[in-house]
Task: structure prediction
Amino acid sequence: MIKIGDALPAVTLAEYQYAGEGACSTTGPQPVDVQKEAAGKTIALFAVPGAFTPTCSAQHVPGYVEQADALKAAGVDEIWCLSVNDPFVMGAWAQDQKTAGKVRMLADGDAAFAKATGLTLDLNGKGLGLRSNRYSMLVKDGKVTQLNVEGPGQFEVSDAKTLLGQTAA
Result:
């Protein structure tokens, strides 16, 4: 499993941004080279088991949207939400959660990031397949400086307020 001091994996995620309320992107999903995008930045990264799922939609994403200004004031350049979903689902979820300008909703479609970090969650028996565990991390210049991994079915340490409290550490 990835740990503090490790570099983010060399994988490519995907991002689908809506052009505006009710409008779709005209460019389609765009590749996001994790190492290139994280270079020279401070990233508040959090991952969720699935888009549109109860805890993720009611608490996890809204917490980061609400704390976006505070995180940025504390030195965070970007906030990333990762989920093992396709970029179209992540784009629709971004629109639903009103994340534009606050949280980048990144698709880990084939779970490459989750696998490379060792933070997978096997939900095959529940019909959801291989997913990402719920966690948050603070990343500075591509290296993990804080890591908060949730236990099974928990939402206690990966929230925005916890990560905000760790930005000065």
